[in-house]
Amino acid sequence: MLNANADQIEALDRANILALLPPVNGKFVVDIGAGIGRFTTVFAQSEASKVVATDFVHSFVEKNRERNSEYANVEWRVGDATGLQFDEGSVDLVFTNWLLMYMSDEETVQFVANALQWLRPDGYLHLRESCSEPSTKKSVDNSSSSSSSSLHNKSQPNPTRYRFSSAYIQLLRNIRHIESESGKIWRFDVQWACSVGVYIESEASKVVATDFVHSFVEKNRERNSEYANVEWRVGDATGLQFDEGSVDLVFTNWLLMYMSDEETVQFVANALQWLRPDGYLHLRESCSEPSTKKSVDNNSSSSSSLHNKSQPNPTRYRFSSAYIQLLRNIRHIEDESGKIWRFDVQWACSVGVYIERQLNWRQVHWLARKVPATDNNAISIPKSVETLAKQFADQWPAEQREFDHRMDVQKPGGRKIFTEFGVDAEALAQRVGRRIWAVETDPFAYRNALTRANQCGDRRVRLAWHFNLESALDFWGNAGQSMPMFEAVVGTEMLAQLQDERIVNKFARMLAGGAQFASVELVKPGKDQSDKFRANLKLLRSRFIVNEEIEVDQLENGYKILIVMAKLRSTKDFWDGDENNQTRQLLMGGF
Fold first, then answer.
1. Which residues 6+ apart lie within 8 Å of 419 measured at CB?
2. What is the predicted pLDDT for the residue at 487?
3. For residue 10, what are the domain limits?
4. Has the keyword Phosphoprotein been applied to this entry (predicted)?
5. Are residues 507 and 552 in the same domain?
6. CA–CA dist 342, 348 (Å, integer)
């Protein structure tokens, strides 16, 4: 790496990539282009059953061997990646890091085909490449889809191919392997494509870094002294002062859990005041329990941690729902104009690395944007700090416990996909054997889902809170996931969320070819309600073929429960024949 901060970048780079990988303990891992072993070491330490580290540079392999000789589960090979051979269906993870950019197009296609052949069912291929330009972003012709110049002298040929990221996605999605003995056909299910965070340049006009620990601030100053746009301050977060409407992003990471309820309310109110219109507040907290998941009483909003139980612990492991409620209820009245502002909470979701490494879904972060308030629920700060703090500390946690109690009482004897309160994501993951992205629009249901996820420990399940379906669609779009993401959608009362053609089109863009749709709908009695349901169904038909409306139950009060089943238009009809019967059985068995 041609960078003065190479060590720091390398460490962050490695952490970013490892956080997204599946668990490798007990797995057979092939580390291709392993170099001196910066990933090999981690795979070996993660108790993989076997790690094969390969590179075509002999000296790199020897350095790798020297670095990892203590691990009995590592084997080293010198050779070109294009000539590698492994038994069909023998490998759990094929891992590459900056490899295909050094191969020709034909070699790249053949390598990906080989990897598909080597992998066991449900095995993984990880690729990481510089796309369209080098990691340094220098001397590149971005008009080329395949190969372009890099740091090489322009008079010299550069064999590196900086391909479009979309070309890799298309290759992965289109390649197939026919199993030699059975004739069974296999493909890649592309789980995600995303940028490596350390290479995203911020270029903020100004950064104010604050901490109340003087030595931390000095270390921060030492580490970032080369940047002219950074200012350092020593002080408590509760005493920070910035001009009204002067800040674009207020970023915190494990902060509010160390504040009292009153201090938390005041800080969030201050952040709303400091931010410019459309500015953002980011929070990240340990909710209900520490990041380590040890020594916690989950029945309270403030609980013990790793401290000795006889010692007081000032840390507050609050409910995630309480933070959502606080963000949504607080208001700021502008000094001069009297204009009222609020937070539009964009999302709440778990920090992925804690799911993968510690099976902990309760490490939660939120993003909220400052927008004008159109309601009359203006809250005058500081007069109402005490009132809001009371809600934050007592009322909202009490409502959460009541919700949790109702969920426990209504819990069916077996694991059902559909419950009285929605879709059981873990039960669905077990039935279909796929990764599940579950969205809750109720803060209490979201917190309860996090608890259930921690109890079940199924890494295939990801959970998020959004205000509505459109907010979730915008989140996926803003995250760079413009490619189709989902093969199926199962939900409750989704027709009301698909309330206009614009949202229906957003929704359709997130679905893969042949995507299936099923929603449990509660139809209220009366002609007006029936007409509204039919209008929503007609809107769905603009992009979907509605195959069935199955009446599941009719309640005493005249309400009907229906399942609406559909598929995305212009795709293979996945609802024909046996697959249709299997899908119906899956959904009907969910009640």
1. 407, 410, 411, 412
2. 84
3. 6-128+164-199
4. no
5. yes
6. 17
First to last CA, the chain: 56
Whole-angstrom Cα Rg for the chain: 27
Residue 490 backbone phi and psi in degrees, to 5: -125, 130
**Residue type present at position 152:** H
For residue 509 the two structure tokens come to 């863009």
Burial of 571 (0-12, 13-18, 19+ CB in 10 A): middle
Token pair 């009153």 is found at: 262
Q: What is the mean pLDDT of the chain?
A: 82
pLDDT of residue 153: 44
Q: What percent of the chain has pLDDT over 90?
A: 45
- Decide which of 351, 370, 400 is a domain's last residue: 400
Domain CATH number, residue 264: 3.40.50.150
Rounded CA separation 547/506 (Å): 21
pLDDT, residue 146, reads 42
Angle at 22 between CA 19 and CA 28, to 5 degrees: 125
CA distances to 189, 476, 490, 570, 571 from 567, rounded to whole Å, are 19, 21, 12, 9, 8
Number of domains in the chain: 3
The partner residues of 467 in beta bridges, in order of sequence, read: none
The residues, any chain, with a CB within 8 Å of residue 243's CB and separated by 6 or more, are 274
Cα–Cα dist 42/44, whole Å: 5
Domain-embedded: residue 442: no
Taking only the tens place, the pLDDT of each residue in 161-190 is 888 888 898 899 999 999 888 889 999 988
Q: What does 161-197 look like in DSSP terms, one character per residue?
A: ----HHHHHHHHHH-EEE-TTT--EEE---------G
- Decide if 42 contacts 17 (C-beta within 8 A): no
Higher pLDDT, 130 or 577: 130
Per-residue model confidence as pLDDT tens digits over 235-289: 999 999 999 999 999 999 999 999 999 999 999 999 999 999 999 999 999 998 7
What pLDDT shows up at residue 150?
A: 37
Same domain as 56, residue 91: yes
Question: DSSP 3-state assignment of 287?
Answer: coil
Average pLDDT on 310-320 reads: 76
For 45-88, what is each residue's pLDDT tens digit? 888 999 999 999 999 999 999 999 999 999 999 999 999 999 99
Phi, psi of 66, deg, nearest 5: -60, -40
pLDDT higher than threshold 60 for residue 3: no
Whole-model pTM?
0.66
Nearest to 189, CA basis, from 86, 116, 85, 88: 116
In a domain, 173, yes or no: yes
What b/e sequence results for 467-489 when a residue is b if at least 16 CB atoms lie within 10 Å of its CB, and e otherwise?
A: eebbbbbebbeeeebebbbbbbb
Cα 91–chain centre separation:
26
Is residue 479 scored above 50 in pLDDT? yes
- Say how far apart CA 321 and CA 137 lie, in whole Å: 42
